[in-house]
Amino acid sequence: MESTEHVEAQTKKKSELVRAKLINRTAKCEKLSHRGQAALAQEVVQTVDLPHPIYIESAQGPYLTDLDGNRYIDLTGGFGPNVLGNKPEPVEKALATQIKKGWHFGIPGDGQAYLAELIKDSSPAVDEVMFCNSGSEATMFAFRAARALTGKRVIALFDGSYHGIHDYALIRANLKSDRSTPSSITLGAGIPDEVSQDLMMMLPYRDENAFELIRQYKDELAMVVIEPVQSSNPRLDNQEFLNKLREVCSECDVLLMFDEVITGFRIEYGGCQEYYNIKPDVITYGKAVGGGLPIGVVAGSQRIMNTFSGAEDTPAIFAGGTFSGNPLTMASGIGAIEYLKENKEEIYPYLHEQGNRLANEINDFCHANNIPAKMMNAGSMMHLIFGGEKIESSRDIDHSLYKLEKEFYLHLLGHNVIVPGIHLAFISYAHKPEVIDEVILAFKNTFEDLREDGYF
Questions:
Q1: Which residues face 378 on adjacent strands?
Q2: pLDDT band at 11, cuts 50/70/90?
Q3: Could you say which architecture CATH assigns to the domain 102-342?
Q4: If exposure means fewest CB atoms within 10 Å of the residue's CB, which of 265, 323, 337, 426 is most exposed?
Q5: Would the CATH topology of 1-20+43-65+73-88+343-384+412-456 be identical to that of 102-342?
Q6: The predicted structure's pLDDT at residue 47
Q7: Helices in 151-283 by DSSP H: which ranges?
Q8: Looking at the domain covering 1-20+43-65+73-88+343-384+412-456, what would its CATH class be?
Q9: pLDDT-wise least confident of 41-45, 52-56, 207-211, 319-323
Q10: Is the Cα torsion angle 11, 361, 348, 439 positive or negative in sign?
Q11: 189 contact partners, CB below 8 Å, separation of at least 6
Q12: Rounded Cα distance, 450 and 10, in Å
């Protein structure tokens, strides 16, 4: 790598040319960006933070079209829900039918029971489900249910995980602490220190010492929570670690929760539970289950789901929400999940095949050209990570290359491929092989741009 000063001097002109190109063709987007800055404290979520402001007018299949009529290949996937692509026909039809009937009643319709049955049939770990409005709500309710059922206070999360935006989820490992025995600190202001110090615990990801820590604190631990595939580190070689985790939690009488908000109905029809053939006690879903509309789901064994009703003298928790199980989301979810179920023998092998092909071709290109980047992938979800060949957890990511990473996505956008601000990318069933070919070419051309800029 060349010195930072030399790189900045060489790249300034090229970067300005790319930005000028984007500004020239996105006048309406640019105008709306200034309008939004004057009125919005935050534009939806920070994960939208693109290297150049883009606002979407419409979406179809694997494409997004902005306000100025520019079309992009979409690797955002709605941040994960759009397994079938943008505006899939079965979901569009289901929504059109429901809108004619009405879109908010408060009183339940028949959609909740039907979608619940579809989710239950997808996994032997699910006896019952409850609906809420987001993945964050789902994990919040699941944590509460675990504490109520067990009478224990502490919930354990893994270093590098993401479980939503409530106080108990916004906990991360203190990077100054030992990797194998990480301490936890809060993420962002406004969260009492007592949450991380007294009520939450951090475990090391893909590290055998996690099992010893669970054994050591089993009398305080209500539940261990894991993304079976971490969104920050998407990979599928987790079988041995997850098998051992299931064994240790059972041994210690600690509940095991799979957070499948991102992976559910994406990695396989039955999620990571099916892929790894592991039965957790609690599962949270979101994203794909709603077919593109807001949803959260808590699911699991009868024993823990009794906390939502108080059945069998189980301590009951409070759970509710005006729009939980709303008819539009239920219709959208049914349309999506029914189609996935009917076509799962074709859809999921295809997603794995094309995801692996995309990752392998980019990794071969990077290796052949001495480019310090690696595409991590778990089927159709992927993350291009700059720096370092051996990555076990998010701690192995070289954050000193952040400027290079930002330049990469600026140039990629110039090649008409959109990746969300968090740089976790998704392909869908609508991304046919020729579209994947275009994505691969865009990535290679972007790397060549950076080489021309003097980065490599």
A1: 381
A2: very low
A3: 3-Layer(aba) Sandwich (3.40)
A4: 323
A5: no
A6: 63
A7: 193-194, 209-216, 239-251, 271-276
A8: alpha beta
A9: 41-45
A10: positive
A11: none
A12: 11
Q: Report residue 424 as tokens.
A: 């976790």
Task: Please tell me the total number of residues recorded for the chain in this structure.
Answer: 456
Element (H, E) at 385: strand 381-386
* C-alpha distances in Å from residue 297, one per residue of 49, 139, 235, 287, 329: 27, 9, 24, 10, 12
Res 152 pLDDT > 70 = yes
E-strand ranges in 159-199 read: 171-173, 184-186
Q: How confident is residue 44, by pLDDT bands cut at 50, 70 and 90? A: low
Residue 12's CB: how many other CB atoms inside 10 A?
11
Buried b (16+ CB within 10 A) or exposed e, 169-204: bbbbbeeeeebeebebbbeeeebeeebbeebbbbbb
Break the chain into its structural domains and give their ranges. Answer: 1-20+43-65+73-88+343-384+412-456, 102-342
9-13 long-range contacts, Cβ below 8 Å, gap at least 24? Answer: 10/453, 10/454, 11/407, 11/453, 11/454, 11/455
Q: Which two tokens stand for residue 86?
A: 């943008």
DSSP state of 315: P
Query: What is the rounded average pLDDT of the residues 90-103?
Result: 97
Q: Which amino acid is at 250?
A: S
